[in-house]
């Protein structure tokens, strides 16, 4: 019996006769026994930086950029100790702004802010969303790698800019976290458009697990520094979303050290490519098709694609929000639905470019050019079909389709946490 996440629960299934299954998960690391204590220790003894209480001064305006609801960063644990540090430094409540780094996702709801920060913090402090399409809310930071850099004005004008984050495999940045919460989450639409453009996605250095020589990572690091990001606190989570590492301090070095630890956890060797790969996403990533499709593209954009050309990627996902409600999600839907085929999406993107959000259509077109993607258990199967993926109700149906196409004897890789496990093909 196999099990993969599906929403806030799981799907259990058996493989039919002829299918040989292998399960791959991140390496086992003991989660922190005292997470709150570890967070406080990280803030008291930061990396290459004085602690927050020494960086802040009475009268300073402070901005803390935190991740939105699509990210599993436990900001409800990270933010309160930062606020305590600021209080000890003499910074008043009214001089602190908490900025939700939504990027181009839809604005966060009050309840999502409460889920991220806790009700007492939302009621006590000013909490706002990024405004990526409002030029008057943004500051121009210049250009790096042809990317026009920008950041929310409140973040730029702060005397002290702090960010939370989670360090995990990321399709463009190699690993998320570090400067990304500010550089993308609190950025304007032009930065997101250029940094997610076809030139970067086609670049072999813009890959999962790679930060050295990665032009996307270099650009967001520079954007964070130009924005004035002075301090971060980031975590690494295991497959069960438990904190296994937490570090705080100067953004670049702190991120580098956490990436080293994340690699030792997430990167797992596998002997070869597989005929069929089943990838789990789970809540909150499978709430909409835009996010859930990351499970397929992460497996495809590993240093070597995990599935062989012509094989199947099977992703269980409820997609209760459809394609997603944000500007980017709707652009993804339009591009996938309106194009006659995936080759049109690729050719048009390379010729004419695309607005931010639509990069997910380009990414998925690259996946679908070589592999079929089946979405299991979507609440909007017609929408899945419009996006050129195959909707089915059960895992049994998905596996039967793969056998009917490829034959009965198939090698199957099950990756229960496809966004937190990076299989590295050895052969």
Features:
Rossmann fold, 2-enoyl-CoA Hydratase, Chain A, domain 1, 6-stranded mixed β-sheet, 427 residues, alpha/beta, single chain
Radius of gyration: 21 Å
CATH superfamily of the largest domain: LarA, N-terminal domain
List the uncertain runs. none
Mean pLDDT: 94
The domain tally reads 2
Tally of DSSP β-strands = 20
Largest sheet: 6 strands, parallel
Structure description:
The protein has 427 residues and is an alpha/beta fold. The protein has 2 domains: 2-25 and 271-425, 2-enoyl-CoA Hydratase, Chain A, domain 1 (Alpha-Beta Complex); 35-266, 3-Layer(aba) Sandwich (Rossmann fold). The protein is 37% helix and 26% strand. The strands form 6 sheets. Strands 3-19-15-16-17-18 form a 6-stranded parallel beta sheet. Strand 4 (62-67), helix 3 and strand 5 form a beta-alpha-beta unit. Helix 12 packs across helix 15 (359-370). The mean pLDDT is 94.
Task: Produce the secondary structure layout.
Elements: E1 2-6, E2 9-13, E3 19-23, H1 35-44, H2 52-55, E4 62-67, H3 75-88, E5 96-101, H4 110-117, H5 119-124, E6 126-129, E7 138-144, E8 147-152, H6 153-157, E9 160-166, E10 169-170, E11 174-175, H7 180-183, H8 189-195, H9 198-202, H10 215-227, E12 229-237, E13 243-249, H11 251-266, E14 267-270, E15 274-279, H12 289-300, E16 307-316, H13 327-338, H14 342-352, H15 359-370, E17 372-376, H16 381-386, E18 390-392, H17 395-406, E19 410-415, E20 422-425
Parallel strand pairs: 3-19, 4-5, 4-9, 5-6, 9-12, 14-20, 15-16, 15-19, 16-17, 17-18
Antiparallel strand pairs: 1-2, 7-8, 10-11, 12-13
Helix pairs in contact: 1-3, 12-15, 13-15, 14-15
Domain LarA-like N-terminal: 6-208
Organism: Symplocastrum torsivum CPER-KK1
Domain Lactate racemase C-terminal: 275-418
